[in-house]
Amino acid sequence: MHLLLRRAIPPALKRVAPYTKISLRGYRLPTRSTSMAEENIKYLVRVKGGPLEVAKAPKPTDLASNDVLIRLKAVAINPADTKMIDEGHRVTSYPFVPGLDGSGIIEATGDAVERIKVSDEMIGLFQSNDRSGSFQTFAIVDEQKVTKKPPSWAFEEAATLGVCYATAIAALGIGLKTPLPFIIDGPRTGLVPSYILVLGGSSALGAAVIQLLRLALPDSTVFATSSPKHHTHIVNTLGAHRAFDRSSSSLVEDVKRGTPASQGLDAIVDVVGAGTSDIFEAFNPNGPKRYAQVWTGEDKIQTPEDVDSVLFRSRDLSQLQGGDNIMLSLQTLLEDGRYKLPLPVNNVGQGFEALQKALDLMRMGVSGEKLVVTF
């Protein structure tokens, strides 16, 4: 009887959606219901510092003319996710659905959408709220916030790209004010430093910044800091010219010796808030001394008066020339093979429990890999 029962189970039931209950009472095997397929599972936070909870809602249908509806297949975890959940950073109302990174399949499009069609596999830039957060089955975003996933990439790999890529664009275009020739209608003039140091080269953002610096400034020399175990990846895969031990007591001297006549750096991009008073001694005294620091939610790092310090955030991209085209430009970079997977992927697991585990891992600190959860 048991053998016959197992043979009678349709293969589709092995792919049944999360939280769908199957009853075998009386050996009756119901098929997957239409109403369950249309259900939206949300992972949300109801109060500042509150736990992640599971809630159910109908599949959203209220698309504006330029919107797309994405069925999430994988999400990546960012430090910003934990700061929003734990500290309420940038949260305007509760309850809210976290999640800034993800990939999935287009389920529906608005009337004015032409570039994207139903069933396309996409990478998205999401926004933490009930409508557009990626920690749910279905999310709605503007078509400018998505780009096509390379066919050879897994959803888990693609889910890691959006936030670090967009913030890296802000690092160059807003922080350093460099040219961005690979962005459609992006700036073509700006600062061209001879020697640049990326603080935090083994972070997801640092890995993206290194790649984009090589694309934007092919004649510039790019250095990066990290723990030694990540040096090979930073140089051989991402394209940095040299990597330095972030914990070295002689870091400033080591970096300066890497420049002609030990003159020093023209620019520093700090993607992890690691700037200290010592690192500014690595600047060329006769150079532009540009210091681009990412907004981490903490106090702005104070710099000497002669250092040109600029704070950058991904949400400021609307101020950047060509800022509306960054995801469309990413598609070209991916198709041409000029932008690579920034960091190895650590797939923590599937569903709610894996999401909670991944957030806890992020709270403890992550380096040299990107945490991903499959939906």
Automatic annotation (TrEMBL):
InterPro entries xref list: ADH-like_N (IPR013154), ER (IPR020843), GroES-like_sf (IPR011032), NAD(P)-bd_dom_sf (IPR036291), Trans-enoyl_RdTase-like (IPR047122)
Keyword Oxidoreductase tagged: yes
Residue stretches making up the Enoyl reductase (ER) domain: 49-373
Entry annotated with the keyword Transferase: no
Molecular function as annotated in GO: oxidoreductase activity, acting on NAD(P)H
Keywords, in A-Z order: Oxidoreductase
Pfam families linked to this entry: ADH_N
Superkingdom of origin: Eukaryota
Family: Belongs to the zinc-containing alcohol dehydrogenase family.
Assembly and interaction partners: Monomer.
PANTHER family linked to this entry: HYPOTHETICAL OXIDOREDUCTASE (EUROFUNG), ZINC-TYPE ALCOHOL DEHYDROGENASE-LIKE PROTEIN C2E1P3.01
Protein name as it appears in the record: Chaperonin 10-like protein
Protein species of origin: Lophiotrema nucula
